[in-house]
Amino acid sequence: MIPFNKPYMTGKELVYIEQAHKDGQLAGDGPFTKKCHKLLENIVGCKKALLTNSCTAALEMAAILINVKAGDEIIMPSYTFVSTANAFVMRGGVPVFVDIRPDTLNINEKLIEKSITPHTKAIVAVHYAGVSCDMDIIMRIAGDHGLFVIEDAAQAIMSTYKGMGLGSIGHLGCVSFHETKNIISGEGGALLINDKSLIDRAEIIREKGTDRSKFFRKEVDKYTWRDIGSSFLPGEIISAFLLAQLEKRAYINNKRMLIWRRYNKAFEKLENIGKIQLPVIPDNCKHNAHMYYLLLNNANDRNQFINSMKKKGVNCIFHYIPLNLSVAGVKYGCCHESLNVTESHAERIVRLPLWVGLANNKQEMVIKAVYEVLNDL
Question: 20-33 in b/e burial notation, b at 16+ Cβ within 10 A?
Answer without folding.
Answer: beeeeeeebbbbbb
